[in-house]
């Protein structure tokens, strides 16, 4: 009887009375109390109809209860499928129809609109204060749950990642994908039960969910759960904490605050950055102000973490370090798939126990990105230095990363092109001091029509999450194209950046 992930993350601590997780406005929980609540939630899930292998979709505020729901899903043999809370009903409807979950957990205020698109899924609610139909009868359930058997190759999570075609793809992640990565990170970053992590990232993406939570559970780290990135809360928390994991926006915002000093960060052991490029100047400025070298690492939804700068060795600004233990990274010629010499730029490919099993019900897309040899084609362009540090120098995929969120222009262009009066559009990213990249939409109107950008924004606001909204619309007579007819977004970026 075994459950690969649960047995490693929770079982060893199920009787541990040490403090595990705290969130403002709620009592602190020990590992034992947390494990008991997860077990109770596992009973709730089974009662709601979750069988082994079933998807549990969660679009709910970040709470201790949601963290326990992740573990409960694993314990009940389910597949956890978290969604960005910013997604509108149209966006959620797609995920529900594609993943056909047996349970959907959402905030009470959205129950009615989401029930209408939930199909056969049972809808339960979970609110920011932890209340809702998911938790209301929690204490009626036993604090013991007979953990469902799951092997390393069984699915633990389905995380959607947008694609260049505009349709999101569900990355199938197994128990072993998640556990092997958490183990590699704990070893490399020397994470132990003496650590306390400031957890200010969302828990619906790889970074806040797997990198932060799985390593914390595995090593017995105390979690200081913050609902979002708030400078006052971060500076307050740093007095007791030892680690922060963040996207580059966290670090530029910290640098913009006069309270960031060596004194304010003296209890901290490790600042980690990832999900988007950290500018070398941010890295250096952070060291100058605090004495700390930010540790930058590189990962993806499909692969968890791939490379990391060293803990003990040189953390080199502008690079993402070396491959993690047991992970192979190669840089190849995108045309031939052959490895290029060190120093040359090519496609980053990765193979190892971290690499996902493919895209949910999309065998063709899986075959296009996952080679028979097991190498996954990341779509990122990179180069290795002579001493083995990887630098990411660009992307072959048409992707914008804004504040650590991935936005595929195609999805926004599809919405814009449907609007009356729009002949065509091109969405692109330009440098932005806060979010790294900001979204701009170039619009070519129908010859007969005048386009009102406020109307465009209103349509987009109805259909797409706020972080995908263009911050500016540029009206033009024609899009710049090359001789093949392909839109030259680099020219748009140069003109409007
Ligand atoms: C918020 N807004 C954003 C945005 N976040 N717009 C663009 N990009 C974003 N990332 C909108 C808000 O809705 C608001 O709209 C306005 O911008 C100002 O918001 P804010 O209050 O300043 O933002 P805040 O809530 O503080 O959020 C910023 C942030 C957050 C950076 C803290 O976006 C965040 O936590 N990002 C982390 C994303 C993440 O976890 N990525 C990991 C992916 S996993 P209005 O209406 O006020 O104009 C992955 C793999 C790997 O990539 O390697 O890790
Ligand atoms: P996601 O699909 O949300 O998991 O995002 C993964 C993408 O984020 C990668 O393919 C990279 O393009 C980008 N990314 C992650 N970490 C870094 C990093 N440290 N530097 C540059 N880009 C990164």
Structure description:
28% of the residues lie in helices and 25% in strands. The protein has 14 helices and 24 strands. The radius of gyration is 23 Å and the shape is globular. Bound molecules: malonyl-coenzyme A and adenosine monophosphate. Residues 201-202, 205-208, 228-229, 247, 249, 274-275, 299-301, 402-405, 435, 466-467 line the site of malonyl-coenzyme A (MLC).
Annotate the secondary structure layout.
Blueprint: H1 4-9, E1 19-23, E2 29-30, H2 31-47, E3 55-59, H3 64-75, E4 79-82, H4 89-99, E5 103-106, H5 111-115, E6 122-125, E7 155-161, E8 169-174, H6 175-189, E9 196-199, H7 206-219, E10 222-225, H8 231-237, E11 243-246, H9 248-255, E12 270-273, H10 280-290, E13 295-300, E14 304-308, E15 322-323, E16 328-332, E17 346-351, H11 363-369, E18 376-384, E19 390-395, E20 400-402, E21 405-407, H12 409-417, E22 422-432, E23 436-445, H13 453-463, E24 472-475, H14 489-496
Parallel strand pairs: 1-10, 3-4, 3-5, 5-6, 9-10, 9-11, 11-12, 12-13, 23-24
Antiparallel strand pairs: 1-2, 7-8, 13-14, 14-15, 16-17, 17-18, 18-19, 20-21, 22-23
Primary descriptors:
single chain; 4-stranded parallel β-sheet; 497 residues; binds malonyl-coenzyme A; globular; 9-stranded mixed β-sheet; binds adenosine monophosphate; 14 helices; alpha/beta
Radius of gyration: 23 Å
Largest sheet: 9 strands, mixed
How much beta, percentage-wise? 15-25%
Number of helices, counting only DSSP H or I runs of 4 residues or more: 14
Please identify the oligomeric state: single chain
Biggest β-sheet: strands ordered side by side in the sheet: 2-1-10-9-11-12-13-14-15
Amino-to-carboxy terminus distance? 57 Å
> How many extended strands?
24
